[in-house]
Amino acid sequence: MPVFCWTALAANMLIVAAFPVLTATFAMLLLDRYLGMHFFTNEAGGNQMMYANLFWAWGHPEVYILVLPAFGVFSEVAATFSGKGLFSYRSMVWATLGICILSFMVWLHHFFTMGAGADVNSVFGIMSSIIAVPTGAKVFNWLFTVFRGRILLAVPPVDFVLHNSAFLVAHFHHVIIGGVVFGALAGINYWFPKAFGFTLDEGWGKASFWCWLIGFYLAFMPLYVLGLMGMTRRLQHISDPSWQPLLLVAEAGAIVIFLGILCQIVQLYVSIRTRESRRDLTGDPWNARTLEWATSSPPPAYNFAVLPSVETIDAFWEMKRKGLAAAEPAYQAIEMPRNSPIGIVIAFFAFFVGFSLIWQIWWIAILGLLAIAITILVFGWSEDREREIPASQIARMERARLGLGRPA
């Protein structure tokens, strides 16, 4: 499979394993709030710290739920635009799967200062360092693909000094923006022509890139220094005037990032206005390596009329390298699921359920839950869930995509 598929699989495995922890935590919190139970009330026999521990037992795997798909994007983009296969594909896959296990063994590093003791802190400090190994392996794989440090917050004594400081804010945003947001932006630019059939404007894209990159470092590098100077997060006023110059630099960085966002909006507007001149008629505008580029842009609803035969990594690249042109197959009808608005409808009513539970407006909560139940029942009893695309229509679409005339 492409590495992006591996990282998406790993992220979904983490979702299945981690989100029940959050669900159980919120269920206990709900019982505390509405039925007078005391799971998290210290003076009533509960433990407030248990809530924080359970939250981060979910929250740290959730960080990798965010970043793993972005790792997959980096892998696909680096390989395609380097014109060579990803360096050490197997180690990349094993590193991805290793993160699935290790990410559940590090959550306590958020609480090195809570008094758990030296032994517990040591175990979680070691695990927090070990999880850097598979992530580091990925970074070196990307570097070696394109080519022909210290870990501070994993060390308990350092964490005692920097806990709740602006250093932590900088650290988190460096990981999430540099890892997740930049990965998402790369994925948008890379797969946009596949999804919509035309490329994005390159000039405005470069302007956005430079604004994001420069603004990113201007905004968050000063916070590392401010954290070391003793500035804590979530302040309502500046208690030390010596922090002011660095805060102004960080503010300038935020403004530059905002300009990058504006450039993206303009890029999208210009690209849509000029889409006829930037149509992707080949289905493969980047000379890419993976199979999604083997079909038209945007792809038909059924993706592939005939399932491709995959015998190697970067199967599409191998097909192009060997000059393989498959003979026209005998097309068969394909059954496709019908589109359904059920997800949007349930989300609409769930919003009101959540809002009313927070403010204890019980009649709205009851009506919302009933509406959700009715929606699910209506969908569950529906039999009209699939449609069939006839073989003749598939053949016509495939011949048009390949530029073929009617068969002899």
Task: Write a structural description.
This protein has 408 residues and is mainly alpha-helical. It has a two-stranded antiparallel ribbon. α1 packs antiparallel against α2 and α8 runs antiparallel to α9. The radius of gyration is 26 Å and the shape is globular. The mean pLDDT is 87.
User: On the 0-100 scale, what is the average pLDDT?
Assistant: 87
CA radius of gyration is 26 Å
Regions with pLDDT < 50 over 5+ consecutive residues? none
Binned strand content: under 5%
Distance between the termini: 37 Å
Reconstruct the topology from this structure.
Blueprint (H helix, E strand, L loop, with lengths): L2 H33 L12 H35 L6 H14 L15 H13 L1 H15 L9 H7 L3 H31 L5 H27 L15 H30 L41 H8 L11 E4 L4 H17 L3 H20 L4 E4 L1 H12 L6
Antiparallel strand pairs: 1-2
Attribute tags:
408 residues, mainly alpha, two-stranded antiparallel ribbon, globular
Short description:
With 408 residues, the protein is mainly alpha-helical. The protein contains 13 helices and two strands.
